[in-house]
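Something for you to look into today, if you have time. Could you write out one complete protein record for me, on any chain you like? Leave the record below and I will have a look.
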Amino acid sequence: MKSIVEQIFIYAKENPQKEALKDGKDVMTYGELIDRIRIDKIILSKWYHLNANDSLIIAADKQMSFITIYFACHILGVTVLPIAPDTNDKRFQLIYHKVQPKLVIGFDAKGIECQKASLGDFENAAENMVLDNDLVEFPDLSNVADIMFTTGTTGEPKGVQLTQRNLAAAARNINTFIGNKSTDVEMLALPVSHSFGLGRMRCALSNGQTLVLLGSFANMKKFFRFIDEFHVTGYGMVPASWAMIKKLSGLKIKEYASQLRYIEIGSSPMPMEEKRTLTENLPNTRICMHYGLTEASRSAFIEFHEQYDYLDTVGKQSPNMFIEIRDEDGIKVSNGIEGEICVRGEAVFSGYYEMPDENKKSFWGEYFRTGDWGTMDDDGYIRLVSRKKELINVGGKKVSPIEVEEVLAKIEGVKDCVCVGVSDPEKVLGEVVKAYIVADDPSCISFDEVKKKLMHSLEDYKVPMLYEFIDAVPKTSSGKVQRLSLKKS
């Protein structure tokens, strides 16, 4: 196995004129891409005095200069901390003080005493830089390449350490399942500050594809213009992206049914009706949805057409990944029995940054404990029940908030909802279910009527005892529901 950056260099040497990156204004060939990576390596080393085992924070913006700096760091042996350009000061300070990077790129970082630079500084410097003839040394696969900080949906953000082997293995697994080819043209509209978007970037470039950079899914005219102009054959999206595409353009995407070879979906659950809508309107497209975490990228996959009868699952374990369902003592359970989803494979992370106690608790031997609760059937299909920390213990009986939400969302007038476990006000059951409802019109919904309707579809102990209207369900930028933020409020 070779690192992602080495794979890019190998492809570029054989195909220097092949287009690597486009953004609607500029084009960068593979030959130009590796030259810029080498130039940025020189800038990092000679201007900012970075060496192997140093680290830097970079604003992960979808610009060509971000991509070249990112891979330059990998060649140099510098660990990259890619974070969103709009990261709030509290989160930035937390990450900075935990890791103490030698350079910060793309952030003002007031009050921080360290070297700072902008993406533009690298672009300006590159214009007058002359490449030397030094041979490029590619990173060892055991090197920590990136540290990705989790969104903190179940607690304080953790620094997920990903080695060069983790990144290369994940790209191999994903490309194997989806079936990407070097002739594919992929549009990247996902943020590259999250593992999904960054992973799509690595998958495409390590595979010799052309990557088209789009700011976001919000600009539908540009989205469809790029599909037409660059003959895009695939892209990645989260369910919230599909909701936006559908809201702003209806089902226009079906006009490209014969052009789009693949779509990868992930990061949060997708309603069954939307899965079916996509499947019906894109009959020739390989629609792949993954299950995974930053710590264990794309652990499972499902393809909507081939596995249409299993759309209520997250699919089966990905190529070269191994999944077991284990109980709270780490013992593998029988098929059909609920337990914690545990994963092993070369794509599984190397550990949390400077959290030895957390690392010990996070593994059963070689298997990473995802914190997700689910089942596996006799055919290997995995059904996700809930986050383990989000399961609600009602008098000793476990309730999945997802199950309750699916029923609640079907009630007329309920626009969105989320359920959490709260202390039983009667102090009998330990916990009870509380439902937070986003209503089309709160004056038209009676909590008593909602409760009656739920009792027709759920066992008594699963029916929420408490209800509250909210303006919006709290979610991360990738669409993950932040139940615990409500539980703490």
Remarks:
- The longest strand covers residues 367-376.
- The radius of gyration is 23 Å.
